[in-house]
């Protein structure tokens, strides 16, 4: 059972003053819960250890996919295979951040991997900034969270230059390097998330710029903003699979830029391997005894309750819960029906006294660095709520 601590919510005007404008959902309900999930120090440590181990498993699985040419099994678009290989071969293509979604971890329930949002994860602003502000707003000790997301990603920006080395020894190396940040015009949530990442990069010592996706310029010599300023790095909050499918010419251009070593793209193309839910079947093949994995297959599982997902589905769209006979128990529609399905063993999420389900989200930036929760029904869709946490 999930234990909750009631809190005083932050008013909308204050939220908007520090950049959080998506506080109210379409049905006029508040997106941010006025409660915190109570998490013990031991539970937080277990989330930390699980995510670090899972990331190492994903890295092993990615090498297995590349070595055995399993891209089709994971639904990878053909025009991204070469960018994936090239970005994987060279450590300068650094994975900046991602978010693991997990069941369990509360009240003695075992931690189980639901999926890995490795390329363009949401809830960064909420996890890194908002839940810290909730503690401060309620007179609580801000240190009583598993939350070093801001510091960890800032440090990971420095590792773009130093890679695995101690970043404090090489502070002068960051001078002069430029990162261009981009998001889709008109989406305030995505823009503010990117602006937050931009501030992290500034704190890390980089020169930065911001340009909406439609204003970014490309040629084989590099990546530029609308004023023709070149940048060594480009962070785009735009999924790799959408680039491959909707912008095939851009995919070709980015491949040339990578081959010519004119710019580095964040997150790297290989994060699409991690993003594919088909990777969880590969993990089950390689790590059959892992306590963190749910049985996953490309074909329907026999005789057990399961969840059908799409390889690149997001926010609970195109998800079906099936009973042991294959009948649909619950389902969400969505735009991802053309992607290949995967079938994952069903597991109950922890629940509160009202029957709401809670999914843990743990951010990863070189190591596990921050915890937050989504609350909703059996399928956590885009109307689920964000719930902060308190260590006790």
TrEMBL record:
- Gene3D superfamilies registered for this protein in UniProt: 3.30.1490.330
Keyword field: ATP-binding, Ligase, Magnesium, Metal-binding, Nucleotide-binding
InterPro entries, A to Z: GSPS_pre-ATP-grasp-like_dom (IPR005494), PreATP-grasp_dom_sf (IPR016185)
Organism domain of life: Bacteria
- Outline the extent of the Glutathionylspermidine synthase pre-ATP-grasp-like domain: 12-390
List, in alphabetical order, the Gene Ontology terms for molecular function in this entry: ATP binding; ligase activity; metal ion binding
Q: Does the keyword Nucleus apply?
A: no
One Pfam family in the UniProt entry: GSP_synth
Query: Which SUPFAM superfamilies does the entry mention?
Result: Glutathione synthetase ATP-binding domain-like (SSF56059), PreATP-grasp domain (SSF52440)
Protein name per its UniProtKB record: Glutathionylspermidine synthase
Species whose genome carries this gene: Sulfuricurvum kujiense (strain ATCC BAA-921 / DSM 16994 / JCM 11577 / YK-1)
């Amino acid at each position: 059972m999930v234990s909750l601590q009631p809190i005083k919510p932050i008013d909308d005007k204050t939220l908007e003053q520090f950049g959080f404008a998506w506080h109210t959902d379409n049905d006029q309900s508040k997106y941010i819960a006025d409660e915190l999930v109570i998490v013990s120090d031991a539970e937080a440590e277990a989330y930390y250890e699980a995510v670090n181990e899972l990331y190492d498993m994903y890295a092993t699985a990615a090498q297995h996919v590349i070595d055995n040419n399993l891209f089709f099994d994971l639904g990878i678009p053909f025009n991204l295979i070469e960018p994936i290989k090239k970005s994987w071969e060279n450590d300068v293509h650094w994975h900046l951040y991602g978010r693991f979604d997990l069941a369990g971890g509360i009240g003695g329930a075992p931690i189980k991997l639901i999926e890995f949002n490795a390329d363009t994860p949401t809830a960064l602003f909420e996890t890194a900034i908002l839940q810290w502000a909730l503690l401060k707003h309620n007179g609580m000790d801000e240190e009583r969270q598993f939350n070093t997301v801001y510091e960890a990603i800032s440090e990971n920006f420095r590792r773009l230059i130093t890679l695995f080395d101690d970043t404090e020894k090489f502070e002068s190396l960051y001078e002069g390097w430029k990162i261009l940040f981009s998001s889709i015009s008109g989406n305030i949530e995505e823009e503010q998330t990117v602006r937050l990442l931009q501030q992290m990069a500034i704190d890390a010592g980089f020169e930065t710029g911001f340009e909406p996706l439609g204003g970014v310029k490309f040629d084989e010599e590099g990546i530029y903003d609308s004023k023709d300023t070149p940048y060594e790095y480009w962070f785009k909050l735009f999924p790799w699979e959408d680039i491959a499918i909707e912008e095939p010419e851009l995919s070709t251009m980015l491949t040339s830029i990578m081959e010519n070593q004119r710019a580095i793209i964040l997150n790297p193309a290989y994060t699409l391997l991690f993003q594919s839910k088909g990777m969880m079947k590969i993990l089950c093949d390689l790590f059959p005894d892992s306590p963190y994995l749910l049985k996953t297959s490309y074909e329907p599982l026999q005789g057990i309750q399961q969840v059908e997902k799409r390889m690149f589905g997001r926010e609970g769209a195109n998800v079906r819960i099936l009973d042991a006979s294959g009948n649909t128990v619950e389902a969400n529609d969505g735009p991802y029906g053309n992607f290949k399905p995967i079938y994952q063993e069903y597991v109950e999420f922890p629940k509160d006294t009202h029957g709401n389900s809670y999914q843990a989200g743990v951010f990863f930036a070189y190591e596990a660095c921050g915890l937050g929760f989504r609350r909703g029904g059996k399928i956590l869709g885009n109307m689920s709520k964000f719930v902060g946490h308190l260590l006790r």
